[in-house]
Design goal:
single chain; alpha/beta; 3-stranded parallel β-sheet; 3 strands
Length: about 70
C-alpha cells in the first residue's frame, strides 16, 4: 500500500489535477469525495481509483480508509 495516496476533494478540479500529477510521479491516487461529486466527475484514467468519503463524518472516513487498506 506504500504507493497509494488518498486525495480528499479528489473529484474537484484541483483534486483531479493532484491525482493526475501523482500518477505521473508513480503513485496510485485514490480520489475521495462525496458520492454525488464522484458521479459527476470524469475519471477516465484507470490508474486513479475512487472512494466515497465525507470528511465531516468520522464513520465515513474510517470506512473509506478501511476499504483502501483492505484492497492492498
Amino acid at each position: 500500500m506504500g504507493d497509494k495516496v488518498i486525495v480528499t476533494g479528489g473529484a474537484g478540479v484541483i483534486g483531479q489535477a493532484i491525482c493526475r500529477r501523482l500518477v505521473g510521479s508513480g503513485y496510485r491516487p485514490i480520489a475521495a469525495d462525496l458520492p454525488d461529486a464522484l458521479q459527476a466527475s470524469d475519471f477516465s484514467d484507470d490508474r486513479i481509483d475512487v472512494v466515497a468519503m465525507d470528511v465531516a463524518d468520522r464513520e465515513s472516513v474510517q470506512s473509506a480508509v478501511g476499504s483502501v487498506v483492505a484492497d492492498g
